[in-house]
Amino acid sequence: MLRTLLSILLLSGSALALADSSLTEAEQARVIDGALARIRETYLETGDIERIEAGIRSKAAKGEYRATATPEAFATQLQEDLRKVSGDPHFFMSYIAGEIPPLPTSMKPRPEPDAQRQARFQSDAVLRNNGFKRVERLDDNVGVIVLTSVFPAEQMRENAAAAMTFLKNTSALVLDLREVRGGDPGGVVHLRSYFVDGRIHAYDFVGRKSEDTMEYFTDATTPGPRYAPNKPVFVLTSSRTFSGGEAMTDAMRTWRHAKVIGERTKGGANSALPVKATDHFVVVVPFVKTVNLVTGKNWNGTGIEPDVAVPAEKALDTARLLALGATQTQRER
After folding, report:
1. What is the dihedral of CA 123, 124, 125, 126, to 10 degrees?
2. What is d(CA 158, CA 164) in angstroms, rounded to the nearest whole number?
3. How many Å apart are CA 54 and CA 218, to the nearest integer?
4. Mapping DSSP to helix (H, G, I), strand (E, B) and coil, where does residue 32 land?
5. Which of 183, 220, 284, 300 has the fewest CB atoms within 10 Å, i.e. is most exposed?
């Protein structure tokens, strides 16, 4: 998820050099034709494809794209329309000024990843501390982990082990996912491994094609200490918590019985694949969906409803109060 989107965003930066260029209606029509063709071939929700195509072609016929003459503005508008018509926030459109490099054909790692793209990803991971923004022990012995994203397991392994080692003696733990907009599925299951015992078949990615279906298991062992199962855990969410952040929230509530505090999440449970629409436009199409193996469902389009609904900015204070109450109850038993 995250790796794919980062690649597209990094590539799209090269488009800035041609910001003053423009597209004719005929060129816009070719992009629309190419994007819709790729959606017909790739989109997970096959029953929605005709509605998506009809909606986009209707907007084009009404001339709604005439004002978006620059490639960047056109890509942005088409992206927003695809999301609105489909109801799926995982649609993206990107304009690339130069040559589009080879794109992945599935979520499964390629044997020889593009070295330059991999280097950019590694650099971004370092700058973002592999998604770990803050780890602290509060005065009331409540541990807090603040994440901004969930990087692949190999990237975040040392950070996760260090965080869990530092917080192993806390009385309760707060996992703050209010800023998390996405994440790598392998990283999600690695992080949740610290909160369950042993290897658990947690969830699957299920696609139109059988070869796109992938199974995800928690790790049998972890490099850092697992968090004690008798200690309360709380997950903080906001209306912006999305995709990988939602996968982590859903898993923590399902397998660890963590309480979710904050706001209903954004509602993106599908994972997307970048495909070439034309020589300079890429459309990112949702092609697999997350399936919780306990509920058989996911949160796409609906989001995750918190157990305790409060404004996002009050979620940490609320979690601390609940943590104090829970630990006090445990001491009195």
Report:
1. 50
2. 10
3. 42
4. helix
5. 220
Q: Which two tokens stand for residue 99?
A: 């040559």
DSSP conformation class of 131: G
Tens-digit pLDDT profile for residues 222-251: 999 999 999 999 999 999 999 999 999 999
pLDDT in tens, 57-75: 999 999 999 888 799 999 9
CA distances from 296 to 64, 235, 254 (A): 40, 22, 12
CA distance 126 to 247: 23
Q: Are 179 and 235 in contact (CB under 8 A)?
A: no
The residue assigned the tokens 């989107």 is 5
Which tokens sit at 309? 């609904």
128-268+303-332 CATH? 3.90.226.10
Q: Helices 25-42 & 49-61, crossing angle to 10 degrees?
A: 170
**Strands, E, within the chain: which ranges?**
92-95, 132-137, 142-147, 172-176, 201-207, 214-217, 233-237, 259-262, 270-278, 281-292, 308-309
Half-sphere exposure of 310 (CA within 13 A, CB side): 17
DSSP helix/strand/coil, 280: coil
Going from N- to C-terminal start, the domains of the chain cover 2-118, 128-268+303-332
- For the segment 293-299, the average pLDDT, to the nearest whole number, is 91
Whether the Cβ atoms of residue 167 and residue 137 lie closer than 8 Å to each other:
yes
Task: Write out the two tokens for 237.
Answer: 């969410």
pLDDT for 1 equals 46
Q: How far apart are CA 183 and CA 162, in angstroms?
A: 20
SS3 316: helix
Q: In this structure, are strands 270-278 and 259-262 parallel, antiparallel, or unpaired?
A: unpaired
For residue 176, which of 141, 222, 226, 132 has the smallest C-alpha distance? Answer: 132
- In 293-325, DSSP assigns E strands to 308-309
